[in-house]
């Protein structure tokens, strides 16, 4: 996701990624993809078609990947280059994928380096179409895409509706954004049979409890931890629903986001879905109290004298209250953000809220807790010793949590 500096991490780190670029104006966005994937630790080989080179230069890609950009099927240095590329690739992605490329790929043509590489590879393939909306809607283009998706098992990512290079569109045609392409590639690399088809329900963000139409009681949670878990679970192949309190983060790619405002709304949204869920992660920082009565109009200065007293009522406990409705054998993960007696308080939450795993952290510690992109957590589960991890990014913490969830699911709990 944008805003957080990229560093080498799973699932891109150390992976060989072939990035095919075909001739559409969206090719300029693929420069960003090549750069980000390199910063995420991937070894990125960019392959450009003749027409792609009319929009973007091979040299640009060499600059951002530090590797030669490839253009020729018949080159002196690379006899059978396509065989080597295809064999070594962990994933092949084509972005943008033009209508012409889709037609050629669907027919198994072997007239350029990217099409031959596709024939030569056994790696997963991600295709990100981009074209005029009417071209995209054409029956032949749709048939080609269906063939690539259904028959060849390619992951078709996008297109979406939105402004196109020429005029406003009536329908889909716009290539998905660079960070979404990176996530689609991440899914191809990370997909795990333990997670495929599993329903994952995640709560994230703060809740806002209204005092009046413009003020609320809330907390400093950014939602970053829950959003990172949701995105990572999607990459592993799960069907993910994120019930999110107010957050300024963009919705994770491929994830169903249910926006809520208050603890009561979060409670209702979770209650309605938890019976179907195989894995539950309660990462929201739910406000424990709400104003007993929200004013219908803005409270004016002076209206209440020199002070304003807000009477608070206890909110429902989303995790605890929905315990009885959980699916038999499902796995539940909770968080414990503490300032004192971290481990003792966290262990108590295991039992009290029916968690299989608690992720404990100390809000007073530097680099942990709210509003930062890192966390230092300790995992607690019944009958095991606390497992303390070093300071790491929230994206890495998300992967560590899912590794442990995976073991619990594997042991037959979900
Ligand atoms: N939680 C919840 N609903 C609440 C409060 C907490 O679902 N109303 C969940 C959180 O998402 C987290 C876990 O319960 O997974 C523990 O949250 P935390 O705020 O640490 O604990 P509290 O229940 O608020 O307990 P305390 O105030 O004693 O720390």
Structure description:
The chain has 414 residues and is α/β, with parallel strands linked by helices. α13 (342-353) links the parallel β14 (331-338) and β15. It has helices spanning 27-39, 52-55, 58-65, 81-88, 99-106, 113-120, 133-137, 139-151, 178-190, 224-235, 263-273, 318-321, 342-353, 394-413, and strands at residues 16-21, 43-48, 91-97, 125-129, 155-156, 199-204, 209-212, 215-217, 239-244, 256-259, 279-282, 289-291, 312-314, 331-338, 357-362, 374-375, 378-380, 387-388, 392-393. It has 14 helices and 19 strands. The chain is elongated, with a radius of gyration of 24 Å. The structure holds cytidine-5'-triphosphate (CTP). Cytidine-5'-triphosphate binds at residues 203, 263, 282-284, 286, 288, 315, 317-319, 334-337, 349, 353.
End-to-end span in angstroms?
29 Å
Residues in helix, %: 25-40%
Based on CA atoms alone, the radius of gyration comes out at: 24 Å
Q: State mean pLDDT (0 to 100 scale).
A: 94
Structural class of the secondary structure composition? alpha/beta
Specify the overall morphology: elongated
Q: At the fourth CATH level, what is the homologous superfamily of the largest domain?
A: CoaB-like
Number of helices: 14
């Amino acid at each position: 996701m944008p805003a957080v500096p990229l560093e080498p991490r799973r699932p891109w780190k150390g992976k060989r990624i072939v990035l095919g670029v075909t001739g559409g104006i969206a090719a300029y966005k693929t420069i960003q993809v090549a750069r980000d994937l390199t910063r995420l630790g991937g070894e990125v080989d960019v392959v450009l078609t003749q027409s792609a080179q009319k929009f973007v230069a091979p040299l640009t890609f060499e600059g951002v990947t530090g590797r030669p950009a490839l253009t020729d099927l018949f080159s002196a240095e690379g006899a059978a280059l396509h065989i080597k590329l295809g064999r070594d690739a962990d994933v092949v992605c084509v972005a943008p994928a033009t209508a012409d490329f889709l037609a050629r790929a669907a027919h198994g043509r072997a007239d350029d380096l990217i099409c031959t590489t596709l024939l030569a590879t056994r790696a997963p393939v991600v295709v990100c179409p981009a074209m005029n909306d009417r071209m995209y809607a054409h029956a032949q283009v749709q048939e080609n895409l269906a063939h690539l998706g259904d028959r060849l098992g390619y992951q078709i990512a996008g297109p979406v509706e939105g402004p196109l290079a020429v005029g406003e569109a009536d329908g889909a045609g716009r290539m998905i954004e660079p960070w979404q392409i990176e996530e689609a590639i991440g899914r191809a690399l990370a997909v795990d049979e333990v997670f495929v088809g599993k329903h994952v329900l995640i709560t994230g963000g703060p809740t806002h409890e209204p005092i009046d139409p413009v003020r609320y009681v809330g907390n400093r949670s950014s939602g970053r931890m829950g959003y990172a878990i949701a995105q990572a679970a999607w990459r592993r192949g799960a069907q993910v629903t994120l019930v999110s309190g107010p957050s300024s983060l963009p919705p994770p790619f491929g994830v169903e986001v249910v926006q809520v405002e208050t603890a009561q709304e979060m409670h209702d949204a979770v209650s309605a879905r938890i019976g179907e869920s195989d894995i539950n992660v309660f990462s929201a920082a739910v406000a424990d109290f709400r104003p007993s009565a929200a004013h219908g109009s803005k409270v004016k200065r002076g209206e209440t004298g020199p002070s304003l007293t807000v009477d608070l009522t206890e909110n429902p406990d989303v995790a605890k209250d929905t315990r009885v409705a959980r699916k038999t054998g499902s796995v539940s993960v909770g968080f414990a953000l503490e300032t004192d007696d971290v481990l003792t308080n966290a262990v108590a939450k295991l039992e009290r809220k029916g968690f299989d795993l608690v992720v404990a952290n100390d809000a007073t510690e530097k680099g942990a807790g709210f509003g930062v992109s890192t966390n230092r957590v300790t995992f607690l589960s019944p009958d095991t010793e606390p497992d303390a991890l070093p300071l790491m990014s929230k994206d890495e913490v998300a992967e560590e949590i899912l590794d442990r969830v995976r073991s619990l699911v594997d042991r037959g709990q979900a």
